[in-house]
Design a protein that fits this description.
Length: 252
């Protein structure tokens, strides 16, 4: 996994910046009820999406949480006074504290199924009855857009998709959450070019291909042989799933 403390300063530039953040925030808000009062953005990263969630709905009280100091430092500059350091598997909030919880581009990063299950359980725990949990699923699959780059990389070793939609739905159901909608949005500016993908390989972007390994170098050489080295291929399209916590007699 990348060191997100070290990645923080360059993170947005290499991940589509404001256009991608705008697309993500719009899609998330399309699944969050208009009357939502408090929203927790888990794994808020640099806060580039979190800020847009807050700006789009002035009455919405948004809190961001991230595990890494470097990312949280960036987020605090964008959402002052509303960001905490926190592990998604052990959130420092009481039960039923939020009307909505989001986790955009988080679950695919977790190492084991139990970690994903724990993160979903925590998001459900801090969600009030009647509230909505929104998360991305199938992130790695979104990057396979059928390009010549994907053909070159097809034989590479892959880690299991921890955020597979079927798994996430199962974990959510285990917490009593019910499906409540879905949406898709483009990862604007994230279309891969051969040269950039080869550079990403060599710096450890692909978790099963360590930098400097012979197999990694073979893939990098094959990528550098493709035409149009600096032409980005199509952008990925990401998927959001929403889950609702059933209301009960204690709901205000």
């Amino acid at each position: 996994m990348l060191d997100y403390d070290k990645e923080a300063d360059a993170y947005d530039v290499t991940r589509g910046g404001e256009p991608r953040a705008a697309a993500a925030a719009d899609a998330v808000l399309g699944l969050v009820p208009a009357a939502t009062g408090r929203l927790l953005d888990v794994a808020c990263g640099t806060g580039i999406v979190t800020r847009r969630l807050a700006a789009a709905r002035p009455a919405l009280r948004v809190t961001g949480a991230d595990l890494t100091y470097g990312m949280a430092r960036m987020a605090v500059a964008r959402v002052p006074g509303a960001v905490v350091l926190a592990d998604s598997r052990r959130l420092p909030f009481p039960d039923r504290a939020f009307d909505a919880v989001t986790s955009v581009w988080l679950l695919h990063l977790l190492d084991e199924p139990d970690d994903v299950r724990a993160a979903v359980a925590e998001c459900a725990r801090v969600l009030r009855p009647g509230g909505v949990y929104v998360t991305t699923v199938d992130k790695a699959a979104a990057h396979d857009v059928g390009s010549d780059i994907d053909v070159v990389l097809a034989p590479r070793p892959r880690r299991p998709a921890r955020d597979a939609a079927a798994h996430v739905e199962s974990y959510a159901a285990g917490q009593g959450l019910r499906p409540a909608g879905r949406a898709r949005f483009p990862g604007l500016g994230q279309g891969r070019s051969p040269r950039r993908t080869a550079a990403d390989l060599r710096r450890g972007w692909f978790t099963q291909l360590p930098p400097g390994e012979p197999l990694t170098e073979r893939f990098a050489v094959s990528l550098r042989a493709l035409p149009d080295q600096d032409r980005p291929r199509p952008d990925p399209v990401f998927t959001l799933r929403a889950f609702r916590k059933p209301a009960d007699e204690r709901t205000p």
